[in-house]
From TrEMBL:
The keyword Protein biosynthesis does not apply. PANTHER family: PHOSPHOADENOSINE PHOSPHOSULFATE REDUCTASE, SULFATE ADENYLYLTRANSFERASE SUBUNIT 2. Coiled coil: none annotated. The lineage of its organism: Bacteria, Pseudomonadati, Bacteroidota, Bacteroidia, Bacteroidales. GO terms for molecular function: catalytic activity; iron-sulfur cluster binding; metal ion binding. PROSITE patterns: 4FE4S_FER_1 (PS00198), 4FE4S_FER_2 (PS51379). This is Phosphoadenosine phosphosulfate reductase. Pfam families: PAPS_reduct.
């Protein structure tokens, strides 16, 4: 939020309201003796005390002492130490610790403004949503879902809509800008069951937790730490320290931990390693267990939660575009509030120092961000630190990657792991998945075959629409009532190997939903992720799949929360996928292979396809480019003569592949 310059006299940093001549372009982090020891600076001629105070500051891997660049660290990775390049004139340096008292005194006023604004934000957000819970009953009495109406209008008009209260005590909807002009305050109508401070063991969530304790009574929020199975030992230790610290100050503050019912490596075996394009572990191991633990009193219904978290814009380009309050960012039942969204790294550490809060030991050894033991987003520097600090905890994951790499014939496994190439592969690359799903669409019927299915297709079908079900020995049949139509379906085979057919189905929305149901039934491993999307508590996934038809409203949130409706299905290589790569590069297809099922869906009803299809938002542009370059549509997405012919032929039940071959 504020600009940072060096404070030569104290050996620290200064916060400034505006840009000055020596303003730093990167927010520096403090460097402690533990990191210097790990980099072996004491063996390179440097002298420094083992003290609590920081000795240097680092901007990325450049290290500064009292405003001067004194050395750089380069070339670190999982198997190799960093190379230290000491700058000329600093080969033999005696370090004096930062004068913490004076540095903090000089930054006191700006820090006060910074934390006061955050405290006010937390308090105002809590009050607004606490009142919203009361207003919810008024809206409920009016028999109108104002939040849903506002969301629908926003989607249609692309403008922010506010719920306001008129002088006659009635409620109305109007554009937010108009409401502001008329001096009308926006009324929230979202009932919140739980206010939460999410603690991750990192510096950012630690600051937010402390701000919450200074903003709110301890009885109105709780603290939950989600143990992913990847946690750094220092993060687990810090949680216990933090719990003891705040429990002694605020006995009424509730602390708890959550975790998935299965260990993380068991999911590696079923889903594959997390990758840079599919970091499934955050949902499966962290957020799903956390929010699944929060149910509305006396029911299986997900509690509506407002979480104060430590997200900061400085951390990534994507986060820099976040609003300070986000509804349904990751899960539909969760509102995320970001009190320190605009804080920088330096301000975070200054807050911790000012309030004498404990610091995760990993920061003292050089971790810029405290996350998991192994992560597809980690850097080579992180890999080096973790391998040195926590080799025992890291070993099972590296061994699993090495085992899979050798099995797949990777020639130089050590280089493959060292260069982090495992992070850039599709998650299911190394897995042998016996499950297969094949779709065969026509203009008349919807048909799919499944081999090696893992859960009940009959149970999952219940989320699509009301249906009847008659079960015979190796045959299940009945009707699906969708919108104003009734479709007959039939399932033949066994629980794991079967065919599924719906007669006379042309509705693209229903086709898309049925495909997602089939993927879920085929690949579901009870990971818990989709359960927390259910707004009524009708869905329960562990230990077995159960859908309560009395409470299911067929909203399809459990189907639409992820591509293909299932994390595992999306992560593994599907038999229906054809990887078509352009000669000039795959980038213009957004790295997606072109699926036969996409072509089937498109050719069945090309006029309606772009308004109603089963593709994800990132898949649509790539598919458009492919259709244009194949000559099937023109620049305005209208069918060419070739496209019209293919559509006609396809709807006469001739497969696309036969046309291409002839």
């Amino acid at each position: 939020m504020y600009k940072v310059t060096w404070d030569i006299e104290t050996g620290g940093v200064r916060l400034n309201h505006k840009v000055v001549a020596d303003t730093l372009s990167v927010s520096p982090r403090p460097v402690f003796f533990e990191e210097l020891d790990l980099l072996k600076l004491h063996e390179l001629g440097w002298t420094y005390p083992h003290c609590e105070e920081p000795l240097l500051w680092a901007c990325n891997k450049q290290y500064f002492y009292r405003g001067q660049l004194v050395f750089e660290a380069k070339g670190a990775n999982l198997y190799n130490d960093a190379t230290i390049e000491i700058k000329p004139g600093f080969e033999s340096l005696t370090l004096i610790p930062v004068d913490m008292d004076e540095m903090l005194r000089r930054n006191k006023d700006i820090l006060f403004l910074l934390e006061s604004e955050a405290i006010e934000f937390i308090r105002d957000t809590f009050i607004d949503y606490s009142l919203a819970s009361k207003k919810f009953e008024e809206f409920k009495a009016n028999q109108l879902d104002y939040e849903a109406l506002a969301a629908a209008i926003e989607k249609r008009t692309k403008r922010k809509i506010a719920i306001v209260k008129e002088d006659c005590d009635s409620f109305d909807l109007m554009e937010e800008s108009i409401a502001q002009e008329r001096g009308k305050k926006r009324i929230l109508a979202t009932k919140i069951d739980v206010f939460l401070a999410s603690f991750s063991g990192g510096k950012d969530s630690q600051v937010v937790l402390d701000l919450c304790t200074r903003s709110l009574p301890p009885s109105v929020f709780e603290v939950i730490y989600s143990d992913t199975g990847y946690e750094l030992p220092s993060s687990l230790d810090l949680y216990e320290d933090v719990k003891r610290h705040y429990s002694s100050l605020f006995p009424g503050l509730k602390f708890s931990t959550t975790s998935n019912h299965a260990p993380v490596l068991s999911y590696w075996d079923k889903i594959g390693t997390p990758s840079d394009t599919h970091r499934w572990c955050c949902s499966v191991m962290k957020t799903a267990p956390l929010y699944r633990s929060l149910k509305a009193s006396g029911s299986n219904k997900q509690a509506k939660v407002l979480t104060f978290d430590g997200v900061r814009a400085e951390e990534s380009t994507r986060r820099s575009n976040y609003n300070r309050i986000g509804k349904g960012v990751k899960h539909s039942t969760v509102i995320n509030a970001h009190p320190i969204l605009n804080w920088n790294t330096t301000e975070i550490f200054l807050y911790l120092f000012t309030h004498s809060l404990p610091i995760n030991l990993a920061y003292r050894f050089g971790k810029a961000r405290v996350g998991c033991i192994i992560c597809p987003y980690s850097s080579c520097w992180d890999d080096m630190l973790v391998s040195k600090l926590y080799p025992q905890q890291l070993s099972p994951f590296i061994e699993r990657i090495a085992e899979w790499s050798e099995r797949e014939g990777i020639k130089d496994v050590e280089n493959y792991i060292r260069d982090r190439k495992w992070k850039f592969r599709a998650s299911g690359k190394f897995l042998t998945i016996p499950t297969q799903v094949i779709f065969k669409n026509s203009s008349a019927n919807f048909f799919a075959t499944v081999k090696g299915g893992k859960s009940s297709i009959i149970e999952w079908l219940k989320v699509v629409a009301p249906l009847t079900c008659i079960i015979e020995e190796e045959r299940v049949y009945g009707d699906i009532k969708y919108k104003d139509s009734i479709y007959s379906y039939e399932i033949t085979g066994t629980l794991s190997d079967y065919s599924f057919e719906v007669v006379g189905l042309k509705d693209l929305t229903l086709i898309s939903s049925l495909k997602r149901v089939i993927y879920k039934a085929a690949y579901c491993i009870n990971c818990e992720s989709c359960e927390i999307e259910c707004p009524t508590g009708a869905l329960s996934v562990f230990p077995t799949i159960r859908i309560d038809t009395k409470t299911c409203v067929h909203c399809h949130r459990c189907l639409n929360f992820h591509d293909k409706g299932c994390i595992v299905a999306n992560s593994t290589s599907m038999t229906t996928e054809t990887n078509i790569k352009a000669k000039a590069g795959i980038d213009r297809y957004n790295t997606f292979g072109i699926h036969e099922e996409w072509m089937a869906e498109f050719l069945m009803s090309p006029e309606d396809f772009w308004e109603n299809n089963g593709l994800g938002p990132k898949q649509v542009p790539g598919f458009k480019n492919w259709l244009k370059e194949a000559g099937i549509v023109d620049s305005k997405l209208n069918l060419t003569n070739l496209g019209k012919s293919l559509s006609q032929i396809y709807n006469d039940s001739v497969k696309i592949t036969e046309v291409v071959e002839t």
